[in-house]
Amino acid sequence: MTEPTARRLTLGALVHGSGGHIAGWRHPDARPDGQLDFAFHADLARTLERGRFDALFVADVVAVRGHQLDSLSRTGRAEHFEPLTLLAALSLVTEHIGLAATATTTYNHPFHIARKFASLDHISGGRAGWNAVTSAVPLEAANFGYDSHLEHELRYHRAEEFVQVVKALWDSFDDEAVVRDKATGRYYDPTGLHTPHHRGEHFAVRGPLNISRPPQGHPVVFQAGSSETGREFAARHGEVLFTTQHEQGAAQAYYADIKARAAAHGRDPAHVLVWPGLSPLVAPTETEARRRLAELQDLIHDDVARRLVQDDIGDLDLTDHPVDGPLPDIPATNRSTSRRDPLLKLAHDEKLTIRQLAHRFAASSAVAGTPEQIADHIETWFRSYAADGFNISFPYLPGPAEDFVDQVVPLLQERGLLRTEYEGGTLRENLGLPRPAARDRHLQETWTMSRRTGQLHLNAFLKPPGEYLAAWRHPDTEAGAGVDIREVLSFARTAERAAFDAVFLADLVVPFASEDVLSRVSVVNDSFEPTTLLAALAAGTSRIGLIATASTSYNEPYHVARTFASLDHISGGRAGWNVVTSLNDAEAQNFGLAAHLDHATRYDRAEEFHDVVTGLWDSFEDDAFRHDQSSGVYFDPAKLHALNHEGRHLKVAGPLNIARPPQGHPVVVQAGASEAGKNLASRVADVIFSGIRDLGRAQEFYAEIKERAAAHGRDPDHLKVLPALSVVTAPTESEARDKLARLTELLPPQVALADLSYWLGGFDLSTYPLDGPLPELPVSNQSHTAQQQIYEDARRDNLTIRDLVRRVANDDRTITGTPQQIADHIEQWFHGRAADGFNVIFPYLPGTLDDFAELVIPELRRRGLFRTHYTGRTLRDHLGLPRPSRRS
């Protein structure tokens, strides 16, 4: 069985922290708490990479798997990371292995999915893969406001449009469109930008995507449908197909069928890889391997056996049926039938009891044997065209994965089936898949201030290559820093060495001007999706907090709750969520709406959204997870609490399928300064950002927001006020001013005018006389705070439009001076109770960050204002915030 072959075996690993077998977590050599241990996942990923696996794959269900808590509490499936958050972190501790994750097309939006996977592809250097599923578990529906799961055919119809929209968004930029030409001031070639303008049956998405084309063109698309509809969908879109056939003949029939369907759609069948599932258990002898498998099977509790049959067949309740009795009559279902139908036939033909059927399910893809027998099985299926590779699920972890890599992989390499070194740099290259060409697709008590004794807090606002719109043109910046993980990681590490409380990533998902103007800036066109980036930064840092923006207007609370809970676990309690209601109509058009929600509705929804998210974070009590292998109790069901929320805007059942975050709740940040914004912040926020630049007004805002917090029954010291502070410093004041002047000279006037127009609600100011006063424009539906600030400045200083444009171009928000002068400003605001700290903005990176860290931070420490080192582990520790108790 060693003749040469033109084909090469490909391997993926389905990663369950508790192991692929339903009772794997109970095995004496398993890590029962591995699900939420990032170091455990990192070690496993490196083991798989050592075994030259093509990809590791994280499956996902956006719900807790089942409502029968007694059986659920005896499995390791009630908690797991949000997969993209985990994979972004793993990208920094691996170099070659592909990183694939499930994301449902039924309970997501195409714009979010396109951004997240494009970001992961950039962060990982071209190793991302998306498993497009339509969701199989009806309980998912209740977490997204639905009473029932969508019909099977409708789910696939929606999925078809969803995938087309995602691919169109990935193709927003041509490969060579982003030129980053500092000399001409052109960040990208506007002729290379293609706005999808998609309007279909299920989605209306304007686009374009605000990140350059992924390194792979498109992340690799995985798919797992085996029904008739699923096979057609896979043949059109799938590049790696997961299958459930366990008999060689059935696998060969599926293989031939799917390749023929792909050819009928004009695709090269060699570019559709078929991966059946395989769960290998390796031992020195076959007898020993089978004994180990039997031991695993014996660990399946009776309640779990019933639930396993229920989950795989669907829509039945076996609670009162004896586990050693037959199956009852099975009703029709709206669930996936590709797995259900063959299982029912098996039970009928062999007259299996519920327990026997559960054991078949649990070990359906298991192959127990010696290393040679496992290698023989793989080679036989591969050479007989039953498989192009395998999706390998290890029964428990880490032992079986290490055994496979150390004992089976060398045999496959000796037989010429498996690589000895990675051939390429991307997942596509390693799988032998072509890179798709870009296509233009259309598709009330008063609070009295106490004496200030606390320490100053500093947050690093990172917007690579800098906050200033022309920062990318500065000779000392890397123009493409916004999508270069090495650059962003170096900025975060600089801030961490300086002991900043946190780094903060804002989010811009909308254009603010014409395409000609947009092509001259970088930040809104080419930047990572922030939570994906922070997950990567979590793996590359150890102490600094990690805050990202996520809109309450165009997200679902279940997704936001999972993502930030996962980030909090991965980072060891360093996550923060900046709650925003989004800015304008252009953003709405990426999510199927013609116009932005009105201001009052946005904040009403945001308040409810926040309460749902924090309620989901409280799904499990802190000590719910016992991981007790001897009793078989993974978590205490009495300590799991469903949310069952139905409000004015949202309907979410819960519970969340991940343990309570290390911080209880990730830190909540808010930036609204309107009346509605201040009300929201004073009730729910731990940190509030403000844009006030005048000391007197900042003191008034500080006092007001603290009083509002007290009126809500909160300790005002537990709401930190951090005004924005944009800084350029140098050894002398004149040098600092020269630095800023050199930067502002790089901003074209039309960009400055467009930026001013944007902050005034998107009204086109080019039709008004530049030397005339700012006209009375109608109140827009975007941020009221920014408009109010501009009007106040214009009236107070009698400014013309030209004056205001110059202020934008000259960046009058930025303070210049020596380190001592900058420290004086900070100290005056801090002791004058205008601020608890600052959200420090860096006009260009890394220069202004390096200068602040090297020159200003030591001066603040000399004055006793700022820490010399971290004293806590979590972001709440850094900020002096208590860990919230769980809400009843």
Strand order of the largest sheet: 1-2-3-4-9-10-11-13
Mean of residue pLDDT? 90
- Terminal-residue CA separation: 63 Å
Name of the CATH homologous superfamily of the largest domain: Luciferase-like domain
Q: How helix-rich are the residues, as a percent range?
A: 25-40%
Number of distinct helices:
29
Given the C-alpha coordinates, what overall shape results? globular
Largest sheet: 8 strands, parallel, barrel
Radius of gyration over C-alpha positions, nearest whole angstrom: 28 Å
Walk me through what this model shows.
The protein is an alpha/beta fold. It folds into two domains: 10-172 and 207-299 and 365-431, Luciferase-like domain (TIM Barrel), CATH 3.20.20.30; 458-619 and 656-730 and 813-879, TIM Barrel (Alpha-Beta Barrel), CATH 3.20.20.30. An eight-stranded parallel beta barrel has the order 1-2-3-4-9-10-11-13, surrounded by eight helices. Strands 14-15-16-17-22-23-24-26 form an eight-stranded parallel beta barrel, surrounded by eight helices. Belongs to the NtaA/SnaA/DszA monooxygenase family. GO terms for molecular function: monooxygenase activity; oxidoreductase activity, acting on paired donors, with incorporation or reduction of molecular oxygen. InterPro entries: Diverse_substr_monoxygenases, Luciferase-like_dom, Luciferase-like_sf, NTA_MOA. This is Shy18.
